[in-house]
Amino acid sequence: MKRATSKDVAKLAGVSQTTVSFVMNNTPNVSLSEETRKKVLDAANQLQYIPNSFARGLKTSQSKLLGVFLPTMDNPYYPMLMQYIEKYTARLGYSVILCCTYRNPEREKAYLDLCEEKHMDGVIYLFTPNWMKRVVQLSHTIPVVLLSEKSDDIPLNTISLNGFRCGYLVAKYLLDLGHKSIAFLMSSVSSVSLTRTKRLEGIRSAIRDAGLPPETLQVFTAPLGDSGQSEAEAGYSIMEQLLKRKDITAVIGVNDLVAFGALSCVLNSEDKRVPQDVSICGFDNIYLTTMTRPKITTVSYCTEALCELAVDMVLKATGDSDVLKLASEPQLIVRESTGPAPGTSGQCVSS
Amino acid sequence: MKRATSKDVAKLAGVSQTTVSFVMNNTPNVSLSEETRKKVLDAANQLQYIPNSFARGLKTSQSKLLGVFLPTMDNPYYPMLMQYIEKYTARLGYSVILCCTYRNPEREKAYLDLCEEKHMDGVIYLFTPNWMKRVVQLSHTIPVVLLSEKSDDIPLNTISLNGFRCGYLVAKYLLDLGHKSIAFLMSSVSSVSLTRTKRLEGIRSAIRDAGLPPETLQVFTAPLGDSGQSEAEAGYSIMEQLLKRKDITAVIGVNDLVAFGALSCVLNSEDKRVPQDVSICGFDNIYLTTMTRPKITTVSYCTEALCELAVDMVLKATGDSDVLKLASEPQLIVRESTGPAPGTSGQCVSS
DNA sequence: TTGTAGGCGTTATCAG
DNA sequence: CTGATAACGCCTACAA
């Protein structure tokens, strides 16, 4: 049973294809009689007419498709953003294609090609591209927005997550709480990402500003397993080591997953408590951080708003307009997993 | 700058469009000279020729698009399946459109329509549809596969998660461990789903088979917040109540998220320990279950294999062939969160 | 082995 | 206000 075409509708309604098109699209600057309109609508309904998007695309070269690039779904951060994007685009009449790269440049490139082939109306990157050259090239054809870390030398619209500021915020907060020996926990995948590097820089900067020595921060990187859960594993295993030491009083996970792993570890130890003995915090504000007890202190970027903004930018972009660079103002979300350093009176020195 | 078309390539290569088409598609039963082939390939390369999928679709009515329906991304179970599906389809040259319904029938219907409009080559449902009539209708046009609970009266290809068996497995396991008073924890969204009902039936059946009274199982439902994290919240808050009682020795979450919430609660209590005082387990085998300490006992359905199977079914389906019904054979994954009932010698009675 | 020609279902430009 | 008619870019008999 073949699908009804606009021609069929026209025939049934006793009008021309053109008229059908006008009615279906509510074409402006065309006024048709109520009668014709109704006739067409009825016919369309009766035949269950659904416009063929191929034909339409051929004419309009609009696909109503958006490509969303992400490295993995294993970190809930990405599905969360994905969902925000989907929720918003659906309202605008666009659909979303999942472009999961697994941090594999080949896959990334393949999806980039796909974007052209399918004439996607826009591309949103939730991480820093690996094929920068190709992405920039693509951006001449299709609007691209990066929702990740900003790199000044990239000529692409980007909404920066402002990793530096995130790191600074967290570190300043811990420093104000009296912590003098802080650990930064990275999984090995972390090293890849610009965002994560920036977070580290931010932390270091806060320490410097506080007049403390660089040794205040110690960085630990766990070897990587193969699967995504290894981020939490990483946090757990590094924390196991750290528990043997007396000096560390605060732990910053490179993201919430790592922080979660670290927290699990401490929760399982007999002698240490969070936050009385160790403070733990992360970045991203994924839902996990509110599901644990204690709930995890973290940094949020108003992700939903940023996602909507990214969509707006991508859809509004008119050809090669000026490159837009925005930075989110991250917010520290203090919850239960952080507190004054042990042996401190605990006054919060912040302004 | 307009995209190159096959006509451009033909002109540059000094051949006809037809030849270009032949070369690009490696059309069988056509042998062209190495020379022409190379000429065309070079020209295509030089012009960065990418076939226009609209035009191609218009002829072939294939979109190389798959619609994946899921209720939410908040439960990691769904992103996990989504990722499995994406990983596999990408290899087969298909892309995936995220159809997130938020359990809202209107959205679901809208996406169903979209599937027709975009001529998707297949649709995979990761939950039980709400517009069964519409889905069945759609299935006459587009292959549909359900990866969820089987309902005998639904004329759709389905891979059943076999919720009944899942419930049975878990219950039998706990019963064998000597538990005589078991709680089943549901969030209020759970009540919607067929899968979850089946799990409950399976549990009850196991109890019956063990010759124990129905009161062995007590069912608790938490009121629903608005967001997805409330599944874990539900587990947590119900567990808070249960901790005040002495009778319950084992808790089954309607899914891993609920189980996780329950676990968090117990972990935070002073007097109870998992699994010594309470056993906790769930369903789905999401990555969270291995991230906690103790790791959570759960049921797995070999989801990756099932996802690939679903994709195969959807792509191989030739028109209205016979409806295929498969059932997964779920596997109990015993981890650290379950153990013998308190006061039991703890022998495992299982064969 | 290669080229010609027609059509897929829309939209858009013109006349009427 | 409505109706022919011509593309859009590709595929595919069929012809050469």
Helices, strands, pairings?
2 copies of one chain form a homodimer.
Chain A lengths: L5 H8 L3 H9 L8 H14 L5 H8 L4 E6 L6 H16 L2 E6 L4 H13 L4 E4 L6 H7 L5 E5 L8 E4 L2 H14 L5 E6 L6 H16 L7 E6 L7 H13 L7 E4 L2 H13 L10 E3 L6 H4 L6 E3 L2 H14 L8 E3 L3 E3 L18
Parallel strand pairs in A: 1-2, 1-3, 3-4, 4-5, 5-11, 6-7, 6-8, 8-9
Antiparallel strand pairs in A: 10-12
Chain A binds a DNA duplex (16 and 16 nucleotides) through helix 2 and helix 4.
Question: Brief description of this entry?
Answer:
Chain A is α/β, with parallel strands linked by helices.
The count of β-strands of chain A is: 12
CATH superfamily of the largest domain in chain A: Response regulator
One letter per element, helices H and strands E, the order of chain A comes to HHHHEHEHEHEEHEHEHEHEHEHEE
Cα end-to-end separation of chain A: 72 Å
Q: What this model shows, in words?
A:
- 2 copies of one chain form a homodimer.
- Chain A is α/β, with parallel strands linked by helices and 351 residues long.
- The first copy, chain A, folds into 3 domains: 41 residues, no CATH class; 114 residues, Rossmann fold (3-Layer(aba) Sandwich), CATH 3.40.50.2300; 138 residues, Rossmann fold, CATH 3.40.50.2300.
- Chain A has a 6-stranded parallel beta sheet, sandwiched between helices. A 4-stranded parallel beta sheet of chain A has the order 7-6-8-9. In chain A, strands 10-12 form a two-stranded antiparallel sheet.
- The longest helix of chain A has 16 residues.
- The interface between A and B is large, with 60 and 60 residues.
- The first copy, chain A, binds a DNA duplex (16 and 16 nucleotides) through helix 2 and helix 4.
